[in-house]
Design goal:
single chain, alpha/beta, four-stranded mixed β-sheet, 5 helices, 37% helix
Length: 183
């Protein structure tokens, strides 16, 4: 089973949520080393600058991912294949995820659900990009959505009948999901 290590120094995503997401990601990818990802929260100005400079798109966006490894989608990951991408603890760094908290709050209001729910979705989406998933084709998009739903479902966050991201009221064991009061 793969351990995920999430590094997040922002109060935007509390430690309890970090640990719950790490548990939800356990076993999602086969790896012989723990995988590490970094979450960074930025304002609208910074996410727009990053989007403009790195993607040639001059607009505010919700999330940007910066994968550090290539060719890992759907494959077993071996630490020995990426010796220069391991940290001092032996974790394999898969990338960074930048989120614009202000845009996430706006989207939560637009979609009619909580900021926490939107934030979890964006972070999982970003992690999947760091694992090589994308949504350039309809087939890729469908696969990425299935994987997002699988991970979110482990935390008790599921789409409702209208397709909106919602939370279940069904208790899920803590080893597989976030504590319900933390979402």
């Amino acid at each position: 089973m793969t351990d995920f290590r999430i590094f997040c120094e922002s109060g935007e995503f509390p430690e309890d949520n970090v640990r719950a997401l790490e548990r939800a990601l356990d076993g999602f990818v086969t790896s012989d080393v723990p995988l590490a990802v970094e979450f960074v929260f930025v304002d609208k100005e910074e996410i727009r600058r990053l989007n403009r400079e790195l993607r040639n798109t001059d607009r505010v966006t919700d999330v940007l991912s910066f994968p550090s490894l290539e060719g890992i989608r759907g494959k077993a990951i071996r630490g020995a294949d990426f010796p220069l991408d391991r940290d001092e603890d032996g974790d394999l760094f898969i990338g960074s995820v930048a989120v614009c908290a202000e845009r996430a709050r706006e989207q939560a209001a637009e979609y009619g659900h909580s900021y926490n729910r939107e934030l979890h979705y964006l972070l999982v989406h970003g992690i999947l990009h760091c694992l090589g998933y994308d949504h350039e084709t309809e087939e890729d998009r469908a696969q990425m959505r299935r994987e997002e739903e699988k991970i979110l479902g482990r935390m008790g966050i599921v789409r409702d009948e209208d397709g909106d991201r919602g939370e279940t009221n069904t208790p899920v064991p803590p080893a597989e999901s976030a504590e319900k009061d933390g979402l």
